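Submission sheet (multi-component)
Chains listed below:
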Amino acid sequence: MTNFLDICERAITGPIMSEKDFDMKVFMPKLTELVRKYSIKYDRENPVPSDDQAVENLFQAAVEFLAAVGIYCQDTNRLIQFTKEEIFDGIAKAPGKCFMGEGKDAKVFGMRKPDDMKIPWLHVGSGIVSTTEEMITNKVEAYASIPEVDSISIPALDSIRGITVAAGSPVELYAAIRSVKIGRDALIRAGRPGLPICNLVSTAASAVTTIAASAPQFGLRPTDGWLCGTVAENKLEYGTMNKIAYLLNWGANVGAETAPILGGYCGGPAGTAIASTAYMMIGILALKGNYQLHFPVHFKYGCSTTRDVLWVVAASCQAASRNIPMPVIWLGYMAAGPNTKMYFYESAAWLLAATASGAPSVQTPHSAKAVLIDGFTPMECQFGVDMAKAAAKYDRKQANNLVKKLLEKYESQIDKAPSGDRYQDCYNLATGKPSEAYVRLVNEVKVELSGMGISFA
Amino acid sequence: MEKSQILEKLAAVVIDGTEDEAKALAREVVTNKLDPLEAIEQGLSKGMTIIGNRFESGDAYLPELLMAAANFNAAMVVLKPVIDEQKKKVEKFGKVLIGTVKGDVHSIGKDIVASVLDTSGFDVVDMGVDNPSLSIIEEAEKIKADVIALSSVMTTTMPAQKEVIDTLKEMGIRQKYIVIIGGGPVNQEWADRIGADGYGKSAIAAVALAKDLMAKRK
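Outcome: structure written.
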């Protein structure tokens, strides 16, 4: 299998072209061609498809797509290319598991298949929803206190000592180190010091900040996980490659981070499903990921719960989990926010689609498109865990029927979804407990979902 | 071919033709001695408006929008020399400098806004991604921009939008420019808080906003 130095070499020796030509003359036309060639069709009546032959075609299209298009290096303006043989070799040699955590929380994060009744690896929390120093400890302690949780994301700090955190600034570095220390301390307070943190380093947009905050004296261990992301679509920059080079030399877990955008360069659902599937191979081959964080989103709505994105999630998750041995944390962005019924309808639909389609792991669905500071609470984490466990009881056909019922409840409101409450609006800051009204709302939703046939028992 | 037919075909070729077809039709405009400005306004721009509306409603995606822009620009390659020769001028709404702010390498949203602005009658200079605040201001001064459009897709890069505005104020040149902002986590409240002139929720909204602000300035 190609190693990371091969990737670095290809980034300086591959064919040269402008980024615009890559988008316009390579990426988009090839995707359009392969949608036709492999007859990839979006089925709006079945957001969770269960046609194995169609899923197999999707995988074959994704292999051909990656072999034809490659990945564009933005710093060198060159294409990093792979042959089909290299792609299949990478798939054959990928371990399909990742070792995470320490002590009693050390575990193996492995694979699932479509219709698998095994409970997915439960990843909770949010890194992208930023928070303040005053809130972070309460939140992380609460996330880690959920007994079933396998791994965790810690929030990014919005400011420290009242100074706004700006990407690439020294304040970002201070904030990144501080968030790591506070995060680990909160895990100790929850009695789970070995729980792996899998979104490192959340308060770090720049590579130098990530690498600096990763020094072991600040509390991180190679059995945690670092996110190293591509740029949409199929692009890599040296900042990400620098992080990967550092982590590989340390022997730390690399988390390939990828997020295809429906409505962007991928075009519609069919093209996005091909690109989404190809990203798992990019995770193995180019990013050298031990695990992956993957979150298809809708360009216009900024969420993952439109009918077409749910189909992309389900179809590409099936294609990947059948064929590509990469432990993937699937993540969805909800349009609505905390303390709204709509959030929980969306969350249930998304978790059913991903879990029944063989997602190795699901992360707490992110609220309010992940753009509201402090707009994420432990309640969404607890519901995500309960719902993922419930979702594992259903096969794709059953999940499809349930998702269709849930879509009826929220689909028409996506464009004007309520952003909901902030943590401090629906939680008691002194006790760290949710308000009675929020508890009541979630219980009401669970009763409704039970009425639809979803069993939380 | 009748004039009305050519104009209709120009709109159609923008929507789902090829660059070669767009150029061929533009040559027909020249051969038939039609007014090239009319061909733009009543043909090419109509096509862009249709595809822009489809994009806005979710019935078309970015590839269709960018292909339409490429077709539009291909036809312009043929028409522009004729317009210059006739000493006519394509009326522009103004000059926009667009870029993603420092620390942010996301480009899709910015690319879309740039493309729609370009085909909607603005001169557009795209600085790409990860631009230091002072570089943006220096470029705006150099090209004599009317509008500075700033994109930010992460909460940690939103402060860089504010930094550009604050620096413009410190340099005493804030009033020279219309500053509009956009990006996933950005909203009107943020625009108000940092003193931007406006916030565009989508590409179409950004174009309407830029046109409106330019009209008010005049």
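Remark: Chain B has a mean pLDDT of 92.
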